Amino acid sequence: MTGIYIHIPFCAQRCTYCDFYFVTTATSHAPFVEALCAEIRLRASAYASRDPVGTIYIGGGTPSLLHPEDLGRIIATLNDTFDCTHVQETTIEVNPEDVTPTYLAALRGLGIDRLSIGIQSFFEDDLRFMNRIHDAKQARSVVTSARDAGFDNVSIDLIFGLPEQPPEYWSANLEIAGSLDVPHISTYGLTIEDGTPLKNKVQRGLVEAVPEEDMSDQFRFTIDYLRERGYEHYEISSFAKPGHRAVHNHRYWSHANYLGFGPSAHSFWWGALPASRWANIRNLRRYQALLTQHVAPVDEKEHVSIDALADEYIMLRLRTADGLDLEELESRYGVDLLTDRVDELADLETSGFIQPIRNHTVRLTDLGKTVCDSVTARLLPG
Ligand code: SF4
Q1: Does the N-terminal or the C-terminal CB of the chain have fewer CB atoms within 10 Å?
Q2: Residue 337 pLDDT class (50, 70, 90 cuts)
Q3: What atom in ligand 1 is closest to the CA of residue 132?
């Protein structure tokens, strides 16, 4: 099954920490929707017959800036060109300031059954620091509005490690999310990315980044807090009540095929030496211009070697609670970690970073989750 990702490259204003591709100047969405549908049709001619669609994820940018008619046109184009009869989950990212009961009802009418809401914080000063548009009141009411509109499958994003954030805010954010009974929470430690307004402020000494140790403490606190309240920590950044794991993201973590449409979207496909990946150009005008000429808007394409795929698979699987299945690693990628990394595995277990291996599967401990990247680096075969 294929996962489909649609990138909607519009935002009303720039959040200080964000390095995603978007524009804030669009006066009309029509040329983009036209181009996006053209890209879907172009790719469908090569890929639609090979694998049915399992999940659809509409992200961005801010997809909720699109009118439901535009979203309907995109979904109709997917249905016309790909086999979408087996779709298990259709998600859209929305921002709290955009969603009215009418808008939510329209999304339901389009067959969208999961919302990912960019709340980030329930506190006014945090939201101002991040230059979010919505206010604390909207952050608190949007989950109820979503539920009233019939969305049972709701995820919210929250960010920890904000400079100058009072220490009690993070636990309060988690408490509010819990009291709203949100079934899925994605938590992200703030990263200071190059080229962002936040990075600029840090470089000018106006803002001080939160020390690594404090970030780790907040992450450990999050794991314990949410676990005690019935959330399963099923991936480093993802917590779900039973039955609410994200199906689409599971495709990424399982190395399944996915196709990305829209500027800057990425794709991955098995079947060519042994797999290939490509990224679309990060320029809306050029993206639209190429598609008016029926040219694929690809910036970079690479064939991925089996060794690189093995490295990536180890990295992806260690992030998950299901863990890294060593037998699968050997049969799919030809890597025998039990032989090649026997000493490292023993040392990681003794040091408390991985659990004792059961059913040929390596899983991180809570301590290991705080240093996931360095544990991964120690197990990479290269
Ligand atoms: S709304 Fe989302 S994509 Fe847009 S600037 Fe903010 S974080 Fe980035």
Answers
A1: C
A2: very high
A3: 6
What's the CATH code, domain 2-251? 3.20.20.70
User: Ligand 1 within 6 A of 20 CB?
Assistant: yes
CA-nearest residue, atom 8 of ligand 1: 18
Ligand 1 center–CA 92 separation, angstroms: 14
pLDDT at 49: 83
Is the pLDDT at 300 greater than 90? The verdict is no
The reply to whether ligand 1 has any atom less than 6 angstroms from the CB of 131 is: no
pLDDT tens digit string along 48-105? Answer: 888 899 999 999 999 999 999 999 999 999 999 999 999 999 999 999 999 999 999 9
Rounded to the nearest angstrom, the gap between the alpha carbon of residue 36 and the centroid of all alpha carbons in its chain is 20
How many angstroms separate the CA atoms of 248 and 56, rounded?
7
The long-range contacts involving 43-47, CB below 8 angstroms and separated by at least 24 positions, are: 43/259, 43/261, 43/296, 44/81, 44/82, 47/2, 47/82, 47/259, 47/269
Measure CA 32 to chain center.
Answer: 22
Question: Cβ distance 115 to 151 under 8 Å?
Answer: yes
Tokens read off for 64? 């909720």
Prior bond to 61 cis, omega within 30?
Answer: yes
Question: Mean of the per-residue pLDDT values for the chain?
Answer: 95
DSSP state of 210: P
Report CA(8)–ligand 1 centroid distance (Å).
11
Q: How far does the centroid of ligand 1 lie from the alpha carbon of residue 193, in Å?
A: 13
The domain spans of the chain are 2-251, 322-379
| Global confidence as pTM | 0.95
Centroid of ligand 1 to alpha carbon of 38 (angstroms): 25
* Cβ(14) – ligand 1 distance below 6 Å: yes
Q: Measured in angstroms, how far is the CA atom of residue 12 from the centroid of ligand 1?
A: 9
Residue type, 303: H
